[in-house]
Amino acid sequence: MTRREPPRLAQLLVAASASSEYRDDLLGDLQEGYQKRRENNGRPSASLWYCWQAIRSIPANLAVRFSQPRLRKERRGTDMDTLIQDLRYSVRTLVKSPAFAVIATTTLALAIAVNSAVFSLVNVVVFSELPMDDPDQVTIFRALNSRLGEEYGSFTYNDFLEFRDGSQSFSELAAWTGGAWILTGGEEPVRVDGYEVTDNFLRAWGLTTVAGRGFVPSDNQLGAEGVVLLSHGFWMRQFGGRVDVVGSTLEMDGAPHTVIGVLTPKMEFANLAEAEVWLPLRRTRDETALEERDVFLSGRLREGVSVSEAHNEIATIAARLEEEYPTTNRGWESLVLSARDSLLGDDGRRILLLLVIMVAFVLLIACANVANMLLARATARSREIAVRTALGARRGRLVRQLLTENFMIAIAAAGIGLLLSRGLMELLIWITQGQQLFFVLAELDTTVLAFTLLISLIAPLAFGLAPAIRASRADTSGALKEGSARAGSGRESSRLRGALVGAQMSLAVMLMIVAGLIVRSVINEQQRALGFNPANLLTVELTLPDAKYADDQAITTFYRELMEGASGLPDVAGVALVSHLPVIFAGQNQPFEIESQPVVDELERPAAHVNVASADYPALMGIPLVRGRGFTAADAQESVPVALISLEAAERYWPEKDPIGERIRIREDDPWIRIVGIVGNVRPDDTNDERPSPHIYLPFQQNARPDMYVLVRSGGDPLALAGAVRQEVWAVDPNQPIDETRSMQQALFDSDSTTYALITLFIAFALFALCMAAAGIYGVMSYAVSRRAGEFGIRMALGATTSDVRRMVLANGSKLIAVGGVIGLAGAALISRLLSNLVFGISTLDPLTFVGVTILLAVVGLFANYIPARRATRTDPVTALRAE
Amino acid sequence: MASNKSDYVFFGELEQVVLLALARLQDRAYGMAIHRDIEERTGRDVAIGSVYRALDRLERKGYVSSHLGEPTPERGGRAKRFYAIESPGLSALHKSREMFARLWEGLRIDPEVAG
To answer: For B3-19, how does the pLDDT look when each residue is reduced to its tens digit (9 = 90+)?
Structure first.
C-alpha cells in the first residue's frame, strides 16, 4: 500500500508554526493539494511541493500567530462552528459503529424512560399544582383509629361543629361529604356524583366560580331552596359551557335545584375531579350528627399559625371529644396535615421513595454500562486520538469532542426514552384500568420534560467524563508506535472497568432483592384463601335515590322484584344481594357489644366488618355454613333480629363458648341481635392482614339499605348477562341508574391493579438490572481475555490445561461478582427496611429472597463469565503470540 | 458609487488578489481553491500560509467572513473553511479599482519599457 499521508515532518512543521485557529484549515488545504499533485505528478513531486509549501508558509504563519489577538465579533460563531463540527464528527463516528451507538442509546433510553415515568409520578405529588389558592395555608384533616386499622378516616358532623367552634387556628374550617344524585329530565336518568359542602368551602380553599356565585350561609339552612354548583367539566360536557345555564333549574332526586354557578376548572383535581355537582351541606347538630363518620374537613390556617400548632389544637379538642362522646369518638385521633402532605399516605410515600431509589439505580447501572462500553471504545480509538493529539489537538478539545459524542447518545436516548416512558405510563394506566389517579394524573408536563433533559445532560458526564479524560490522556508515541488496538489501555483502565462492573452487580442485587420481596409478598397475599368462588359471577352496583325510596318497604320491594326478574333470566344459576363485595371493600370495621361480655374498657370492644346480605348470599358465593343455620324467609322485618358471623369472629370473640344463640348489638339504642349461624371466612380487604377479618352478616330483610350489589351467578361468561340484568333493573324502575357492572373476577383484579402495576415496574427494573449486569461482566471479561490472549497462549504452550486457564478467568470474574454481590446484599438489607409495611408474610430480610437472588445473580454472572473463559481456552498459542 | 479622495483604500497586493479570487469563486472559496485560482491566473505558487495571512487580515478588517464546511477524506477528514466577501470588502475592491483607474488616467507607459 502506498503511503497516502503527506510527509509527517512537514505536517508537524505546519502544525507547529500555524496559529491554532488556522491549523486544521492549513493542514487540510495542504493535504488536498498534496493529493491532487500526487495523482497528477506522482508522489515525490507532491511531497516536494508539500515540504516547500510548509517551509514557505512559516513566516506568514508565525506572523498570523503572533499578530494581535483578534477580538473577533464572530468568536461565538466560531464556538458554534466547533460545536457543529463536533456534532458532525460525532454523527459520523457513531454511524461508523452502529452496534455501539444502538446498544448505548437503547440502554440509556430504557433507563431514562423509567426515570421520567417515575418522575412524572413524583411530579404529581411534589410539584403538582394543588387546586387551592396558596395551598400552604390549607390543611386537610385525617381521622386515625389504630385499633380499627383506620388511617384515612373521616369525621362525624359533630366533630366538625366542635372543631369549628372550639379552635382558634383556622380562619375557615369547611366540611364536605360525598353524594350522588339522580338527574332526570334528560333522555334517560343519569347518576351524578358530587359533594355536599359547607358554604365556606370555596373560601377555605380560596377558589372562585367562573360563572354565577358560590354558596352563601343561607344555602346551608335546612329547608332552603335547592341550589347546585356545576363542576367546570360537567358544565362543558353536559351544557356545552353555556352561561345561560346559570339560573336554570335541574331536577335532581326529583326536586328542583337552581344552578347558581360554575366552579373553576382548578377544582378538577385528584378525587375531586370526578365530582360533577356541588351542593350545600345541610345538617344540624342533632342525634344524627354523631351517627356517621362521613364528613371530610379542611381548614385555612389563620395568619401566622403553623400546621403543627393547628394540629396540636385539634388534637387537644379531639381528646376532649373522646371523653365526651365515647361511643363514637373513643379511639379516634385527629391529624391535621398540610394539603400537599395529605396527597399521599405514608405507604404511598414509601413506595414512591422506593421507586425513585430503584430508578436511580437503573440509571446508574445504565450509565455504568455505557461507561464500560466507552472505556472499551476509548482503547480501540486510542490510535485515532493519538494522531489527533500529534496534529495539535488540545486535550480540552478532545475531551469536548468525546463528550459531544456522549451527549448525542444521551439526547437521542432522551427522545426515545420520553416516548417509552409515555408507553410505560399508558401501560400502567391500562393495568390499573384508570383506577389509580396518580397514574392518570402523571402527565408529561414541562417539569417532567425539564427533568428528562436534565438527566440526559448529567448522564453523559456521569458515564462519559472519566472515559473521555482517560482517552484523551492516551500516550501518543506509544499508540502511534504500536499501532494496535490494544495500545493505551493500562491496568488502571481495567481496574476502573472492574469497579464499574462490581457496582453494577451490587445495584442489580439490590434491585432484584426489592423486586423479589415485593413479588413474594404479592404471591403470599394472593395465596390467602378467597373463601368464595369468584367464577361466573356478575356484580351490579345499585344506589336507590333516598327521595324516591324513602322507607325500607320501598327498598325491599324494589330489590325483591329485581331478584325475581333476574332469577328468571336464562343461564342464571342464582341471584343474591350484598352491601359490600368481599376482598374489594369489606365495609367499615365497626365496634359491637356482646351481651354476655360486658365491656369494661371502650377500647377493648370487639369489632367486625358488618355486611348486609340476602338469605341466599352464602350459598350463591359458595361460603360454607359452618354451624347453625343461614337466613331464611322467616327472618322478616318484624321477626327477631338475627345475624351470621364468620368463623374468625367466632374464634376471636367467643374463644371458649359457642356463639350461636349469643346476642350482640352494634348501636347502643338498637335491639339485641341473635347469632344464628357461623359461616366461613373470606379473604380480608386489607392487603396487610394476615388473619382473616371478622365479619357480621345481617339479613337484608331486616336491614334494608338503598345501596347494594346484585350478584348474579351465571352458567358461562357473566358479562354476557349484563345487558339482560340491566333491562331487569329498568323493568322495575325505568328511572334507576346503574353504577358499575363488572364480573367478580374483574373486580378482584381491579382492586389489586395498583399492586400489579407496581410489580410490573419492579420486575422490569430487576430484569433490566440483571441483563445489564450480565452484559457488563461479559463485556469486561471478554475484553480482559482478548487482552491476555498472548499470556494464555504462552501458559498453554508451557503446559497449562484448558481447565487451568478457564479457572483463572473464572476466578477473576468471580471476584468481581462476589465483591459486588456482598456490597449489594448489605445495601439491600438497608433498603428493604423501606418495605417493612409492604412485605406480606415474610420479613424484609426474607432469607429465601436474599439467597435466591444471590444464587440467580451468581449463576447468570458466572455464565456471562464462562463464555469468555471458554474462549480463552481456545486460544491458539501461535496465533496469540504472533498477534503480540 | 460616489466617492471622494479620502475614501481611497490601500491594501496589500496579495490581499487584493485573494479578494478577487473570492469574488470569482463565489461560494466555492476555501484555502486550496483560492490558492489554485491564484496559481492559475498569476502562475505563482504562493505559500498557502501567505494566503491565510491575507485572509486573516481581510477578516479583521471585516472584508470577508468565514464558516466551516464539510470535512472531506482528501483533506484527512478536516473541514474546509469557506470564505465570503462582505459588503465592505466589495466596496473596498471597487474603490481600489477606481483609485487605480484614476492613477492610470492619461498615463502612457510602454509595456516594453515597463516589462
So the answer is: 444 456 667 888 889 99
Residues of B within 8 A of A36 (CB-CB) are: 74
B112 by Cβ neighbours in 10 Å (0-12 / 13-18 / 19+) ranks as exposed
Return d(Cα A187, Cα A238) in angstroms, integer.
12
Q: What is the pTM of this model?
A: 0.62
Q: Is the pLDDT of residue B1 over 60?
A: no
Cβ–Cβ gap A60/B52 under 8 Å: yes
Instruction: List CB contacts (< 8 A) between A74 and chain B.
Output: 65
pLDDT in tens, A299-312: 999 988 998 899 99
User: Phi and psi at residue A114, in whole multiples of 5°?
Assistant: -65, -30
The answer for residues whose C-beta is within 8 angstroms of residue B61's C-beta and 6 or more apart is B11, B88, B89, B92
| B52–A64 C-beta distance less than 8 A | yes
Would you state the pLDDT for residue A1? 38
Name the minimum distance, in Å, from the CA of B13 to any CA of chain A: 15
Indicate the burial class of A96 (C-beta count within 10 angstroms; 0-12, 13-18, 19 or more). Answer: exposed
**For testing the chain B interface, which of A13, A29, A89 should be mutated: the one with the most B CBs within 10 Å?**
A29
Q: Which residue among A5, A33, A64 places its CB closest to the CB of B56?
A: A64
Per-residue model confidence (pLDDT) at position A289: 67
A20 pLDDT band (50/70/90 cuts)?
Answer: confident
- With bands split at pLDDT 50, 70 and 90, how would you rate the model's confidence at A3? low
Among B74, B35, B29, B46, residue whose Cα is nearest residue A35? B74
Looking at residue A77, its pLDDT comes to 45
Burial of A1: CB neighbours in 10 Å, binned 0-12, 13-18, 19+: exposed
Residues of A in contact with B75 (CB under 8 A): 27-29, 31-32
Q: Chain B: residue nearest A68 by CA?
A: B60
> CA-to-CA distance for B43 and B63, rounded, in angstroms?
25
| Higher per-residue pLDDT: A518 or A489 | A518
Closest approach of chain B CAs to the CA of A53, in angstroms?
5
**A567 versus A291: which is more confidently predicted?**
A567
Report the chain B residue with the minimal C-alpha distance to residue A82: B68
CB contact under 8 A, A31 and B74: yes
Judging by beta carbons within 10 Å of its beta carbon (0-12, 13-18, 19+), is residue A598 exposed, middle or buried? exposed
Chain B contacts in chain A segment 79-98 (CB below 8 A): 81, 84-85, 88-89
What are the residues facing A558 on neighbouring strands?
Answer: none
Measured from the Cβ of residue A878, the count of other Cβ atoms closer than 10 Å reads 10
3-state secondary structure labels for all residues of chain B = CCCCHHHCCCCCHHHHHHHHHHHHHHHHCEHHHHHHHHHHHHCCCCCHHHHHHHHHHHHHHCCEEEEEEEEEHHHCCEEEEEEEECHHHHHHHHHHHHHHHHHHCCCCCCHHHHC
Asked if A880 contacts A790 with a C-beta cutoff of 8 angstroms, the reply is: yes
Q: What pLDDT is stored for residue A644 in this prediction? A: 94
Report the SS3 class of residue A253: coil
Residue A708 in contact with residue A559, Cβ under 8 Å?
Answer: yes
Task: For residue A67, list chain B residues with Cβ-Cβ distance below 8 A.
Answer: 56
Say whether A262 sits in a helix, a strand or coil.
Answer: strand
How remote is the C-alpha of A626 from its chain's centroid? Answer: 42
The C-alpha cell that represents A324 in the structure block: 365526651
- Pair A538, A725: CB distance under 8 Å: yes
CB atoms inside a 10 Å sphere around CB A459:
26
Average pLDDT in the A253-270 region?
83
* Confidence bin at A242 (pLDDT 50/70/90): confident
Q: Which residues pair with A249 in a beta bridge?
A: A258
Give A261's strand partners: A212, A229
pLDDT of residue A699: 94
